[in-house]
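Quick one from the shared queue. A colleague (R.T.) flagged Sugar transporter as missing a structural entry in our internal table.

Convert sequence to structure tokens.
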Amino acid sequence: MKKRTLGFWEIWNMSFGFLGIQFGFALQGGFMSRIFQTLGAGKDDIPLLWIAAPLTGLLVQPIIGYFSDRTWHPRWGRRRPYFLIGAILSSLALFFVPYSSVIWMAAGFLWILDASINVSMEPFRALVADKLNESQRTYGFVVQTLIIGIGTWVASNLPWLVSQMGVSDSADVGVVPNSVKVAFAIGAFVFLLSILYTVFTTSEYPPEDMEEFERERKKKSSFVSDIINNVGNMPRTMKRLGVIQFFSWFAFFTMWSLANPALTEHVFKTPAPDKMEYNMSIQEEKEAFDIANTSFQKASNEVGSAMGVYGLSSMAFALLLVLYTSKRRINRKFVHMAALITGGVGFLLMNIVTPEQLKYCFILIGVSWGSILSMPYAMLSSSVDEKKMGMFMGLFNMFIVIPQIIAAVGGVNFISGLLGDEAINAMTVAGISLIIAGISNLLITNKSAITYQPS
């Protein structure tokens, strides 16, 4: 099918739902560890509590990709029904997660939240490939990244912002502060509203041959066998991109799960207090705990705010790419390699920065994040069968979730433990991993993946 060239605002409208998706991911990534610590989790327990996120992605994204490829509704299209269902469930989970009273409840909400976000996210990736011709795909994924950057920055600053507006950071032992509760409620509202905006402003192309589409859809086939067959026939470029994705997402999972304990302890010198070290029946001890806990919560706000800067710098990086790729082609491989190495340096610098300098580390990390959200998908979309775009986008998620699972079940604790007991060592591991990911771009040799070549 000949796809017409879309204007900026059409691409913006079809990508706008990612603002809400990123509100969900930024609040989850920036503050779930803080919630776990508030409820009493130790820093070594946190990665395993995070295992819900990659496991749900591993299960949900290929399934949603498979079924969205086989969906067509005259009014709602192929991908949009999944956006909407995921948005409703995600908004409910976002609202209730900070009201968790025990660790297992917070972990359960994380399962629900991440599964729901994945229901919305995977079809958004496929929609770009569905709607845009080959020459516009880099541009389309970069516009998505621009919106993601906006969402990351705003959402990461929400607890700090509502705290500045007078909402309390103090709370009883084991209770999440009101500043976090209000921030998550705002995130739930933005998530649903932004998805609805895309659903009602964006149309989708129908299948090129409806009769053939219906025959394929009704063909008796096993979902599991189809998945296994497509894994076995995975394009070589996709496998090589998988190596890059493995080290990239190992690094970012390490950041999301352990940046708060690492940076509050090493940079701000205000680790989460252990209530077992305080005798709560003695007033002075309780007051000392409350002071230490409030200091930790405020430092966590600052960490979240600093993390938000990576969304801002990824947005700036994406904007530069939008302006450039709207008129010219780029070498995706070398852009991605340079961006990942830049982010790796940002992680390594966390060992020596002051609280005031921390934002500069996240500026560098944002460059890599902006590239991670666009370049691999642009390279992948030039390397796979368009009729199976949803399926392959879902399978590509394996290279995102497997490294996170490995990190969660002890990988990051083991590797960082080789460097010592300090929490900041986890950020060093993230930096080294991201640099390896950057160098791994040298594996990509497919010319179409590296730079779109018009026929």
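The radius of gyration is 22 Å.
DSSP finds 19 helices and no strands in the chain.
Added to the table.
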